Amino acid sequence: MKRTYVLDTNVILYSPGAIMSFGDNDVVIPEVVLEELDTFKKDNSDLGANARHAARLIDRLRTKGKLNNGIELPGGGKLRVEMNHYDTKIPPSWDKKKPDNRIIQVCKALKDQGEDVYLITKDIFERIKADTVDINVEDFYEKMVPEYDSQFTGRADVYTSSENIDDYYHKKIMSPKDLLTYSYDTEKYSTIELYTNQFVILHSLDNPRHTALGRFDGKNIVPLYYKDCNVLGISARNVGQKFMLESLYTDANKAPLVIVKGPAGTAKTLFSLAVGLQKIIEEESNEYRRILVCRPNITMDEDIGYLPGTEEQKISPYMRPVFDNLELLVDSDEKERYKNEKELSDKIKELFDRRIITTEAVAYLRGRSIIKNWVIIDEAQNLTPKQVKAIITRVGAGTKLILIGDPEQIDHPFLDSRSNGLCYASEKMKGSSLCYQVTLKYDECERSPLAYEASKRL
């Protein structure tokens, strides 16, 4: 039976192409959705861009017929704008002037007429309300990846003989044919398929204490070269951080993209800043010109232009986590670090005054070609797939791009652990020879004993 999909405003703002995504089924846009889209048309953010895209798309379709009667879509269905059904009963306590309630009212009316109606919305509360009046509801994903627990982590536990591990330490190479993986579901060992640049923890089948670390280079397992580096007084304290350090220290010509996922307190931002500063200040190799730090934030994208001050002053409140990490890096002496707060502040200020570190809103990366920069996108879980593609395609020669974030702390109203840009990039870039990535674990939290305890319990 042909279905009727009623689209909410947030679906079109998330993906204007959603209008064309339902095959030979009918698509209905309530007139209140057009009104809401109209309020976004002058917006300077991605939401505004998507509203304008949708307007152009609907306007092109409009030339083929009448929207109130239905216009043929390429997939075989029809698109129509619904202007009627104001008398359809909904719970009396619901305000009919509220857009969400009006959309549900349209759904109920179409269902009463015998249509197989599905409301498509990214608003959880609207889905709940629609369900209470027996309307079928679904979320919409334009670009979706597996559930978070099944996503690519960039690392794997593998098993082999002690003899093979000894040979690996001696020869610095191992064939993946000698490796096995263990399934806790079947309680059996089996062969494993590795992705290029995937990190491995080698475990001995004979001795659980006999282990080694490595990386699959596309052909063989090879050793890590930078896992034991001391960077501005900090060093890796666990396996995940060793993998992260290897990813960050590898030259931009080999690993121009690094993706680091993981919970709070695993030092993602700290290591990303530390290695960048080490490369630019300590090594003086001229490999990178500066560190560019960006954090996505919807409110910032929309309202930043109205705030007083320079660009960096406007963005400064959103960069507090960066400043907190810089305090640890500009003075490695824990006992002396906070004795003179002004001196500590001046050291950090000097990094910005000399433009060793610069900060920008993600929105300002559009249309640029970024050359020989160390670029950190913090809180990248709040990027959309469209944004993350735009950022990665801005990377020019000699630039290293680091995407870091925690997919379980998403603030974007239209995103979740399956549709955010960080996880999308991770899944799509796995196996690329130009991308190193690692997901840190909860037990690799090193912020403090309390942070580790909270990550386990809460």
Write the layout of secondary structure elements.
Blueprint (H helix, E strand, L loop, with lengths): L2 E5 L1 H6 L11 E5 H10 L5 H17 L8 E2 L5 E5 L16 H14 L3 E5 L3 H9 L3 E3 L16 E6 L1 H10 L8 E4 L4 E4 L7 E6 L6 E6 L4 E2 L16 H11 L7 E5 L6 H15 L7 E6 L2 H6 L7 H5 L4 H11 L10 H13 L3 E5 L11 E5 L7 H8 L7 E6 L15 H9 L5 E5 L9 H9 L1
Parallel strand pairs: 1-2, 1-5, 2-4, 5-6, 7-10, 13-17, 13-18, 14-15, 14-16, 16-17
Antiparallel strand pairs: 3-4, 8-9, 10-11, 11-12
Helix pairs in contact: 7-8, 8-11, 11-12, 13-14
What does this protein look like?
This protein has 458 residues and is an alpha/beta fold. It folds into three domains: 136 residues, Rossmann fold, CATH 3.40.50; 80 residues, Archaeosine Trna-guanine Transglycosylase, Chain: A, domain 4, CATH 2.30.130; 214 residues, Rossmann fold, CATH 3.40.50.300. Helix content is 33%, strand content 19%. It has 15 helices and 18 strands. It is globular. The two termini are 46 Å apart. About 1% of the residues have low confidence.
